[in-house]
C-alpha cells in the first residue's frame, strides 16, 4: 500500500476472492481505498463487480500493467 497526497492509502486487492479484505478496508472510515481487484474466479468477479462497480477488476497481474518487484534471494 502507498500513501497518497491526501493521506489515503491505496490498495491493490490481489487474490481478492469475494472482497473480504476490501470490505475490512472500508471499515477504516475511508483511510484505505481499493483501486483494483485481481481475481481469477468468474463467480468472484461477479460479486466484486456488484459490490464495487467503480473498482477495476482483472484476472491476472499481467493485465494490470504492473510489473511485480524482483525478489532477492540470499546466497
UniProtKB/TrEMBL annotation:
**Where is the stretch described as Disordered?**
53-75
Q: List compositional bias (Polar residues) regions by residue number.
A: 56-69
> Which GO molecular function, any one, fits this protein according to its record?
methyltransferase activity
Keyword annotations for this protein, in alphabetical order, are: Methyltransferase, Plasmid, Restriction system, Transferase
Organism, scientific name:
Synechocystis sp. (strain ATCC 27184 / PCC 6803 / Kazusa)
The answer to whether the entry has keyword Transferase is yes
- UniProt cross-references to InterPro entries, sorted A to Z: C5_MeTfrase, SAM-dependent_MTases_sf
State the SUPFAM superfamilies in the record. S-adenosyl-L-methionine-dependent methyltransferases (SSF53335)
This chain's protein is named Uncharacterized protein
Instruction: Write down the Pfam families for this protein, in alphabetical order.
Output: DNA_methylase (PF00145)
The keyword 4Fe-4S belongs to this UniProt entry's keyword annotation: no
Tell me which Gene Ontology terms the entry assigns under biological process: DNA restriction-modification system; methylation
